[in-house]
Predict the structure.
Amino acid sequence: MFDYCIIMAGGSGTRLWPASSSAKPKQFLPAAKDGKGSFFSLAVERALALVNPKDGRVIIIAGKSHIPHVIAGCANLNAAEKKQLALIPEPEAKNTAAAIACAVTFAGVSSGVKPGGGRDRNMIVLTSDHIIRPLEIFKSNAANAVAFAGQGKLAVFGIPPVRPETGYGYIETAKRLTEGVYAVAAFREKPDLKTAKQFTASKRFFWNSGMFAFSAGFMAAEFRRLAGDVLSPFEKLKAPEAKSWTIRKGLKILSAWAGLDAAYRKTKGISFDYAIAEKCAQTVMVRAGFEWIDIGNWEEYAKLLGDTGVEVYGGEDSCFVDSNIPVALAGVEDLIVVIRSGKDGSPPVALITKKGETQRVRDVVEQIRKAGRKELL
């Protein structure tokens, strides 16, 4: 079991625009067609299954504007489960290295255990926008990770590739250390298609899941060694006072941690992979036995949701519609139609794309950004 679990719930997804936006990123969207659970709420369930039920803590890092979505995602938890959660709202987005450095600092000052003093605390970092199942296999893989984290290693979960994929980073493995655990030879950037095919065929390369395990003391030392400009602003923070916390619907929110805003202004914006993982010499990979699904475009999301229950008139069965207003289709097929009417106060917007072309949504989003219409994102 882990002492701390960090859930990274920040960011502003664009691959599922306009359903996913800066106001409501992908992680807070429904993860099933019944709409009862979000990607984020499933991540919280996983986190609670991994931490010590007696005194384990789940640290949620999210943007200030996303607090209502975090609260909604935790609504079905019981009081005991909510007591294990702590939400740290980020004053500004500074990428994953800053989020992890913040959480490692919080764990250190909250536990009162300084690096090198007493038992070091094991930590695991989870993403909040993937589907991972079944839970029991994930827990078994996590047990391998916590064992190596306790030995002063950085453990990363690697996903066996099922196809050549140019949208993911890869992990190149070296020798096997034990069943399902390998030494890491290198992290590889997102490849072109030819290289991705070579990676998939070699059996030594795995998709980088973005999930990591380590001990707090080891990671603090690695930050100081490899990315001091990320960690040093946070090291000035002291344990939050009681008045720093607010409670909303049973969820503890660190709403006024003295010095946090200044730390985020001063820290460097860089990913954890670039800052630490790619440079760490003590990295191992845990081979995932669980199913890992990254819903990266509207075609994949449409398959996950199935029938959304939208009022649709006409059209072909091959079309998918996600809209908060009734939609009529005539003489078309193989379309994905996503409409947000603006009833919630956000600008009205619509996306119409042909199946097979949904990766181009990123290009559309970039055009909107260049046009200065950030309110649409």
